[in-house]
Amino acid sequence: MSNFERAGNAYSLDLTLDEAHILINLVEQLLELLGEGDFFHHYDTTDPFAALMSMQQEVVAPDDPVLMRLLPNAYADPEAAGDFRRFTESTIRSTKQRILREVRAHLAILVDEDKAGTVADLEADTWLIALNDLRLALSVRLEINEESFDLFESLPDEDPQKSIYAVYYWLGWLQENLLNLL
Question: The domain containing residue 33 runs over which residues?
């Protein structure tokens, strides 16, 4: 099974080729979701500072429940939430995308070589953020709750949902493994 290890100030991760493919697939799906849609609504602005900083007048909360979980409203008040989203969402999205691209680049080395192996010189923070975002996305799609593990255990092996649940729990194991090393 895949395992993180400490290598000086960096970390490494041993993966099978199948595990690398699964992670790349998940990363690419999340990258696509984070980049999809015109989530900015541009309006003519009378605010010269906003125009100078290329800030949008309004940013609409995402419709997709996964995006709403990854980019939640910061405030219950709709106006305050909208203001916060307007000033922060593009930065948060681009940071998440940059982190996922970095993880994909590390994984691509194994996939390009078409073999299992060790992904080296990893930054723990980058991988923790990526693993967390992947787990959050899957948890929303799977509607994870307190009974989910029992459901997973009761699913027959041929049920296609079983493998998706297994990936969710595997990501949790990877995250726990890396956290324990820290």
Answer: 3-181
Terminal CA-CA length for the chain: 20
- What tokens were used for 73? 């409203």
Q: CA 135, CA 111: separation in Å to the nearest integer? A: 22
Query: Is there a contact between 129 and 34 (Cβ–Cβ < 8 Å)?
Result: no
pLDDT tens column, 29-71: 999 999 854 444 443 455 556 555 555 567 788 899 999 999 9
pLDDT band at 19 (very low <50, low <70, confident <90, very high): very high
Query: Whole-prediction pTM value?
Result: 0.85
Which residue type is seen at 106? H
Number of domains in the chain: 1
Contact in structure between 71 and 38 (CB atoms under 8 Å): no
Three-state secondary structure of 63-118: CCHHHHHHCCCCCCCHHHHHHHHHHHHHHHHHHHHHHHHHHHHHHHHHHHHCCCEE
